[in-house]
Every structure is written in structure tokens, then in C-alpha cells.
Amino acid sequence: MTTPLFRHDAYLRTCEAEVTAVNDRGGIVLDRTVFYATGGGQPGDSGYLELENGEKIEIATSVYGEDRMSIVHVPAEGQDLPQPGWKVAAHVDWARRYRHMRVHTALHLLSVALPYPVTGGQIGNPEGRLDFDMGEDTIDKDGLISKLEALVDGDHEVSTEWITDEELDASPGLVKTMSVKPPRGSGRVRLVRIGGEVDLQPCGGTHVSRTSEIGRLELGKIEKKGKQNRRVRIRLND
């Protein structure tokens, strides 16, 4: 089992850890990590592991193990692998991660500005997208970007809280995504809240602490995907 430190503090950039296993494909499992594992439309983190002798192992991405309890750090090709029991320092590529945090939080705001069922999504750098089941409704692009800017400029706090599986079952309206279901199995589900009542939905990803950190946004391409789906892209405008 890997303790996911990012789940409680998305701003941690490094941590001390111990190698607990190296799988048959060369994936490195640690007892604790700051590396976000691929999931919920958000890419896994990259970065490097620093050995006690100062050598570095470049990490290309991070994924969940088959048991969903461990996080596997996938090294770039040609790396020498550590041994179980070795002590390392895990360093996440912070510039890349922080942009994912900003885009992910912006997509939550997009789901507020366009209050339709979400059929899919993807977080990227510097662009992300959501797919909406909106029938024949049209999108007012100027109105949409104005709503997003107002939400960003509102400087709303972004926080997390937890509810039980039973509480989620009793409030199905919390789940906006039709294609991605909240992770279950531990008996509780993590919610991300924006402001007092701006948004509240299950999510296991990493986010900024205030909406003002997102910065300027611009709309990307809007596409029709099937009879009812609309794909809406937004990107960071740095």
C-alpha cells in the first residue's frame, strides 16, 4: 500500500520514502509518495527519485497498481532500478503538476458555467476539456467565458471533505460525471468544494487552493460529438 500524500496536500513537491517493491515491468512502488497516479482524466505525475548517493531515477509517469492500493512510479527507459528497502527522496515535476491543478480546477468551474451532465473529460497542459450531454442547446461563447472569469476572479476557496458511501448514495446529484464514477471500496468518498455553494462533487484529483490561482482562461475548440454531446475545451492563457 502506498500512502498518497497528494490527496491531503496537493502542494507537497517532495517527500522521503522507502522502496517497497519493483514489479516485473520495472515499476517502482514506494511506501508513500507525492506523485499523483493517473486517474479521473488527470495524467500521472512525472519527476525523479533521488537515491541516497545523489543519483537520480527519472520517472515518466505514475499509475495505480492492479490492487488500486499501491502507486507505481514508471521509470524512463534505460534507468537503473533501486532495490526494495532503499531510501529515496521523491521529487515531482512541480511546474507540470501545478498546471494540471489549475486546469483541473478550471474544469470544475466549467461544469458550473455549463450545468449539463458531463459525459467525459481530460486534463492536459495547458488545455483541458469536458464533454456535455446538452442536446440541441447552443453555447454563448462570450457569455461562457464571462462566467468563467467571474468564478476565477471570485477567489473562492477550494477545499476537500469526506462522506460515506451511503451518504453519496443518498445524494446522487453530487455526481456530475456520467462516465467516471467516484472511487469506492474504502467506505468513504472524497468531495471537492469550491466556495460555500459554487460547486461540490466527488473528485480524487489535485486542485489549487483558491480559484484566483487558475489565472486567465480562454475557450478552445467547441465540437459536436454525436447527436447530443458537445466537447468544450478551455486553456490557460499565460
UniProtKB/TrEMBL annotation:
GO terms for molecular function: alanine-tRNA ligase activity; aminoacyl-tRNA deacylase activity; ATP binding; metal ion binding; nucleic acid binding. It is found in: Cytoplasm. One of its GO terms (cellular component) is cytoplasm. The keyword Transit peptide does not apply. Pfam families: tRNA-synt_2c, tRNA_SAD. Residues 1-238 form the Alanyl-transfer RNA synthetases family profile domain. Keywords: Metal-binding, Zinc. This is Alanine--tRNA ligase.
